[in-house]
Write a structure and sequence with these properties.
single chain; mainly alpha; Endonuclease Iii, domain 2; 53% helix; binds iron/sulfur cluster
C-alpha cells in the first residue's frame, strides 16, 4: 500500500518476493521457508530495502522483478537451470555441485 498507493519506498513482501529474496540472500531458512513467521519476513524486507536507494520507483521495479522471478523461475520447485542470476544467488552458489547441477532443486522443495 505504501509503495503502490502512496509512492513511498517500502518493499512489499509477498510469498514470491519472500521465497526468491531468501534464496538470493542465502537466508538460513531458505530450505524451510515459513511465510507466517514475521521475523523472517521483516528480515528479508530490511535486507532488500538496505540494498536499494530511497526511491519508490526503484522499489516498485525491484518488487516486480522479484515477484516475476518467484512466480516463473524461483518457484517452490526451482528452475535454476533457466535462471540468469545464478552467480548472484547465495543459495545456488552455496549448494551448487558441478557433478550434480540439479542439487539445488533437490534441496529447495
Ligand atoms: S539460482 Fe535458483 S534459487 Fe537462486 S534465484 Fe535463481 S532459481 Fe532461485
Amino acid at each position: 500500500m505504501l509503495e503502490l498507493g502512496f509512492d513511498m519506498p517500502s518493499m512489499v513482501i509477498d510469498i514470491n518476493v519472500f521465497r526468491t529474496a531468501s534464496r538470493i540472500f542465502g537466508e538460513k531458512w531458505s530450505d524451510n521457508l515459513n511465510f507466517s513467521d514475521n521475523k523472517q519476513i521483516e528480515q528479508v524486507k530490511s535486507r532488500i530495502e538496505h540494498c536499494l536507494p530511497n526511491d519508490y520507483l526503484i522499489f516498485q521495479i525491484v518488487h516486480t522483478m522479484l515477484l516475476l522471478q518467484g512466480k516463473h523461475i524461483c518457484k517452490a520447485k526451482t528452475k535454476c537451470e533457466k535462471c540468469i542470476i545464478t552467480e548472484h544467488c547465495s543459495c545456488y552458489i552455496n549448494n551448487f555441485d558441478k557433478k550434480d547441477n540439479m542439487k539445488v532443486e533437490n534441496i529447495l522443495r
